Amino acid sequence: MTIQEQKEYESLREIRLESTTLRDGVILKMQVDKVRVCNGNIATRELVRHLGAVCIVPLTEDGRIILERQYRYPLDRVITEIPAGKLDAAAEDPLEAAKRELREETGYQAAEWIDLGDFYPAPAYTDEKIRMFLARGLTLGERELDADEMINVFSLPLEEALAAVMRGEIPDAKTQMGILKAAAYLRTIHP
To answer: Given this model, what pLDDT does residue 147 score?
Structure first.
């Protein structure tokens, strides 16, 4: 952190005064905190704690992205996504989690893994952090879906997936971010 960033952090930081856990679930912990904001006022913050997750943009030799279609209960619809999953523990290596999730959900394994960085999907109310990977050198094996997973796997050329993101046909944030970052990486950083 630079000196300027440290000064900004100190001037904007909120101090937790009390915290109430509403639910401590398998995936999420929900809490309400009372905080003192930088001008001295007291505010309430509702937040969701999450161990973190990974998402993968699996790219075939001929430039196709392996995608998934699955029903998402909160939305009551089937949407297109890249393979992804939560960390099993806070200390789990994100790359190992990504390898596991890719294999379990799609059956693919990758020879090359490129770290595309982290993002926070909704920092106003959750601390969830998602690590993105580009996976290449794919080989197909058997899937190992969880008992509650129903996933249809298909592929699209990268350019078609990118166009679908830009047309608003892929509403999932991690999928949009992964496709955009993978395309940028392939065009500018490692053509």
So the answer is: 84
Identify any residues that bridge with 156 across adjacent strands, giving them in sequence order: 65
Q: Closest Cα to residue 170, out of 5, 55, 46?
A: 55
Cα dist from 59 to 32, 64, 88, 102, 174, whole Å = 41, 6, 25, 12, 16
**Residues taking part in catalysis:** 149
Ranges of residues in the chain with a pLDDT under 50 are none
- Cα separations (Å) of 146 from 69, 101, 104, 155? 15, 10, 8, 21
Question: What is the set of domains in the chain, with CATH numbers?
Answer: 3-50 (no CATH), 53-189 (3.90.79.10)
Name residue 11's amino acid: S
The answer to whether 19 touches 31, Cβ cutoff 8 Å, is yes
pLDDT tens-digit map of 24-62: 988 899 999 999 999 999 999 999 999 999 999 999 999
